[in-house]
Amino acid sequence: MNYHALRIGALFLLTILSYGFYNAYLPITDPVESNYVLSAITMLKHNSWISPMIYDQVWYDKPPLTYWALMITYKLFGISDFTSRIPNTLVAGASVALMYHLVYRIKESVHLAVASSILLLSALQFWYISHAVITDGFLFFFSLAVFGYSYLAFTNNDKSSMVKAYGAAALSVITKGPIGILLPGLILLLFVCMRWITLRENPNYSITKDLKLLFNPLGIFVFILLAAPWYIAMYSIHGEQFISGFLGLHNVDRALVSEHPKFNVWYYYLIIVPLALLPWTPAVIYRLKGIDWKDNFDLLGIIWFITIVLFYSLVATKYITYTLPAIIPCIIWGAETIINLLNKNNKTFKYILTIPFGIYCTIFMIAIFRTPELSPVPLIVTGLVMGLLLKVTRHFVKSNLHLTIYLIAPVILLYTAVTITVPPILLNQSGLQFKPYIETSNQNTYIYGTYYTSILYYTKTTPTQVFVHTTDDPRWTEGKALMPTIKKDEFYQIVPNESSAVIIVPNKYGKNFIESPAYPLVKEIGKTQSTRIYRVIGQKVCVTNPNKLENL
Question: According to the per-residue pLDDT averaged within each range, which of 26-40, 232-246, 276-290, 469-483 is highest?
Answer without folding.
Answer: 26-40
